[in-house]
Amino acid sequence: xxxxxxxxxxxxxxxxxxxxxxxxxxxxxxxxxxxxxxxxxxxxxxxxxxxxxxxxxxxxxxxxxxxxxxxxxxxxxxxxxxxxxxxxxxxxxxxxxxxxxxxxxxxxxxxxxxxxxxxxxxxxxxxxxxxxxxxxxxxxxxxxxxxxxxxxxxxxxxxxxxxxxxxxxxxxxxxxxxxxxxxxxxxxxxxxxxxxxxxxxxxxxxxxxxxxxxxxxxxxxxxxxxxxxxxxxxxxxxxxxxxxxxxxxxxxxxxxxxxxxxxxxxxxxxxxxxxxxxxxxxxxxxxxxxxxxxxxxxxxxxxxxxxxxxxxxxxxxxxxxxxxxxxxxxxxxxxxxxxxxxxxxxxxxxxxxxxxxxxxxxxxxxxxxxxxxxxxxxxxxxxxxxxxxxxxxxxxxxxxxxxxxxxxxxxxxxxxxxxxxxxxxxxxxxxxxxxxxxxxxxxxxxxxxxxxxxxxxxxxxxxxxxxxxxxxxxxxxxxxxxxxxxxxxxxxxxxxxxxxxx
Length: 502
Description:
Blueprint: H1 3-18, H2 21-24, E1 29-36, E2 39-47, E3 62-63, H3 69-81, H4 109-113, H5 123-128, H6 134-142, H7 159-173, H8 177-186, E4 210-212, E5 221-223, E6 238-239, H9 241-252, H10 267-273, E7 278-279, E8 292-297, E9 302-306, E10 310-319, E11 322-329, E12 334-340, H11 347-361, E13 367-369, H12 373-388, H13 403-406, H14 409-423, H15 433-436, E14 437-439, E15 445-452, E16 455-464, E17 470-478, E18 497-499
Parallel strand pairs: 13-18
Antiparallel strand pairs: 1-2, 1-12, 3-6, 4-5, 7-8, 8-9, 9-10, 10-11, 11-12, 14-15, 15-16, 16-17
Protein name: Serine hydrolase domain-containing protein
InterPro entries: AmpC-like, Beta-lactam-related, Beta-lactam/transpept-like
Region (Disordered): 482-502
């Protein structure tokens, strides 16, 4: 079975397992798609988006709400790259009304985009204020905005705050922010099914209507679209699973060797979007049962560091009548997109479980690491010394001055002897080093095993990044029963890094 066919099979199995009747009944229509590198690998469409007998399809347009924020952030960074926006200057330079805010000098576009400006969390208010006019927004801001937390110190999800980035974009371009996003992001990337309002679609377009349920899907009431106004740049977009798959591919390709469309936004700037800038407490209840080493808000995107799968970039969307979520595993390009047309659908939970299920079935690596040639060369020399029973010596391996001071050679010899007394002599039929490499935390590290008569040794080498990298740390420890980690070492995401030798 090819890799593509294998992923498709895993995706279909995961979709079938996660989309049960109690889940699907919460919305008249929904679609969940597993995607990779810009294409839909498998999808499950359910129900009727308008309850008119026409079934949901991959082409059905749903409102994506706060998933819009990544498009706004990307546009802001494009203007930053051109020197037209300074993300670290006081935002009042672009939005004069902000001068009356209590901590105006601390409110930068950077802080607003990354939700650490200290403005109060406003989801409930923001949903119903999406259609406020620019004049109304200006009056609200000019009246003065108090700080809920000290700016720059804590996570506060402020829709009003991020919407002011839209006002800054309008100030420097002279055009409505929705038009700037379309001209700079949507049109160049061919995202023609993604638009700022329902009125921009032709008559007869397959748009999902919004609904609400207060009895877990037993009954539904129609919910009109919340209007599009001054806050629309943070939550008004409509889109399809195909367009969001393409958007995720554009974002995720920034971590690979062939980033897409650098003329639209540089790979470096896209990586900025997907790098955590504001810590989000894991205990906030948003992350279900996933085991995370950390999570934070980047620019218009949430960045999770999953202990098994590494970096996952995601964002939710929710408005009266709609629930949406997108998630991307940057190491493999595998993602999920989930839409439903009630706010009770729970797209975030579904998407989180679905991506974890697919990645688990595919045994996806947490990262792909290509060690420095010097890292591999040092490992080969050290491995050869150990197999030959010779001591570590600077004449054989390029060692930093600290190595034999931190752990003197006699101590190293004693520790190695004690380890070998436990696991037995090194086996004479040890495979070549390339076959024994286990993991690499990054380009400067390498871990490998050495088979012994009654177990194995785990070797770790770590180089310092000088012009000519040299070894700064080296350890040999007894392996656990699986032969892949030092005994008693706790699970780490690096256990699942896949090494590609230079």
